[in-house]
Structures are given as C-alpha cells and as structure tokens.
C-alpha cells in the first residue's frame, strides 16, 4: 500500500512539473488563474484514477500472488507428499526386492533339495532294482545248487548202481569164465570118456566135480593122453 501511494505522489509531481513548464497564454489574469487550476484538477483526477487503477491492479496482483503462493504451497506440499510417498514406495520396493531375493534363494535351495531328494530316490530305486536282481540271482544260484546237489546225489546213486552192476558183471563174467572152463574140461573129459569107453559113473563123477577132471578115478592112469586101467 505504501508503494502505491509513493507511485501516485511521483506521478502527481511529474504532472505538476509538466504543467509549470508548459507555455502560458496571456489572455488576462482570470484566464491565467483559471487555466492552471483546471489543469491541476484534471491532473488530480487523472492521478486519482491512476492511483485507484494502480491500487486495483496491486490488489488484484497481490490476490493473484497470494493465490499463486497458495497454489505453490499446495503444490509444494503435494510434491513433498509425493516425495514421501516415493520414498515409501522405494522402501516398499526395496523390501519387496529383498523378500523376492529371499524367496528366490529359498526356492533355489528347495529346488536343490528337491533335486537331491530326487537323485537319492533314483539311487534308492536303482539300488532296489540291483538288490532285487541280486536276490533273484541268489535264488537262481540257490536253486541251481539244490539242483546240482540233487544231480550229485542222483549221480552218486547211479555211480553206486553202476559199481554194483560192474561187480555183478564181473561176478557174472567170472561165473561165465568158470562155467566155460568147466564146460571145456567137461568137453575134454567127454572126449576122453568116449575115446576110452569109460562108464557113465565116471562121467557123472566128473560132472559133479568130485575130484579133478584131469585125474582119472582110482585104478586108472593116463598113458599118452589116454586113460588106461593100471
């Protein structure tokens, strides 16, 4: 307000200086007195209007400045609020990032554990398969051993039977040889008996095995391959 009145006074002083510096018409004393007064009134009216206009402009400008200042303060508060919200959002984003990293680390750890567990299960399944294979082979081996034992027992029995058959065959062979030998002796004695005319008693004596087939009965002796009575 003081600035407005100062401007008005400056304008008024300038106008008065211009009026005093201007040419003055010489039309008489009354005209000379009336003209400056009228000019002064006009100037004063103009100064008053100017001051009022300037005051209005000042007031409106001040109001605009106040509104602008208020708007700026509001904008500043909004900016501060946005800045705080941005900081909070940054903190939240940081926390979210940390939580995300933690979750990723946990997921990686769980994936590693899952892979380890899967590998362990696969290994256990493989070991189970190998164990089943070994058990099956062992059962086959045991069954094979039992079969071999049975075969060995059967082979032993057959060997014993074969040995018995061999002994029997040998015994029969010996009997056959003995019978052949006896038969040969009987045939030879039969020829001797037929050649010498021995009695049936001597033949019976030879067949029954009493005495030697090559030794004639008592009262007989061999002479040149022939049995003759002594």
Characterize the structure shown:
It is rod-shaped and about 225 Å long. The protein contains three helices and two strands. Strands 1-2 form a two-stranded antiparallel ribbon. The chain is mostly helical. About 0% of the residues are buried. It has helices spanning about 1-20, 30-195, 200-205; strands at about 220-225, 225-230. The protein has a domain at about 180-230. Helix 1 crosses helix 2 (about 30-195).
List keywords for this structure.
230 residues; 2 strands
List the helices and strands and how they pair.
Layout: H1 2-21, H2 29-196, H3 200-207, E1 220-223, E2 226-229
Antiparallel strand pairs: 1-2
Helix pairs in contact: 1-2, 2-3
Taking pLDDT < 50 over at least 5 consecutive residues as the criterion, the unreliable ranges are 18-28, 209-230
Structural class: mainly alpha
State Rg.
81 Å
* 3D shape: rod-shaped
Report, as a whole number of angstroms, the end-to-end distance: 206 Å
Helix-residue proportion: over 70%
What is the ordering of alpha helices and beta strands?
Answer: HHHEE
Annotation field: number of helices: 3
Proportion in β-strands? under 5%
Biggest sheet statistics: 2 strands, antiparallel
Q: Give the strand tally.
A: 2
Can you give the mean pLDDT? 71
In spatial order, strands of the major sheet run 1-2
Keywords: Coiled coil, Signal
